[in-house]
């Protein structure tokens, strides 16, 4: 089981692409020692599009992959796959990758109470049809076929996806989000739940369960540092302030 150490950093939904390079800047700062941490948790959708079987998505991400592997020699890096970046295990040897099938990931805080937490990108415990579709999209053979078609049409499929993603509004309030989470929280089995995916930047408490939805890094380059004081705290920092 992974222990969440003090000063661990959590980043969700960086949605890195050719026009958005904040996560690359963060990794450089981490490499140079300007920010120090024993652990880095990547909570999915770090890239706008990165799929192992789809070769057209590799070139942009390879420098990131190499740098993450280099950093993983010194710090523990945990990467929970999202719905924009998946089937990643073959890219990494040192970075610990957890697919949707291994989420929620059970971890333990190093507070005095030894609180357990479950981590997930957020695209789990959805309506059955939607959950089926999301899992089907990760099918190796389907993706190999899509890669073949994408190559055949001169990469127009991946280009279109990336163009749409670049136009996408990354921040917006989800109406009744607290009610949505209240209905989903019963699927978890710990007193602390951490997700990305929804870009809501909120902390709720339902009876004894705390639910944290992380802000999207892509918006203001926000990341979270774990602090152990009288209670577990996720301190949000914007990269420009670091």
UniProtKB/TrEMBL annotation:
Superkingdom, taxonomy of origin: Bacteria
InterPro entries: Calcineurin-like_PHP, LpxH-like, Metallo-depent_PP-like
UniProt keyword terms in alphabetical order: Cell inner membrane, Cell membrane, Manganese, Membrane, Metal-binding
Domain Calcineurin-like phosphoesterase: 9-199
Listed name of the protein: UDP-2,3-diacylglucosamine diphosphatase
Species for this entry: Campylobacter subantarcticus
Taxon lineage: Bacteria, Pseudomonadati, Campylobacterota, Epsilonproteobacteria, Campylobacterales
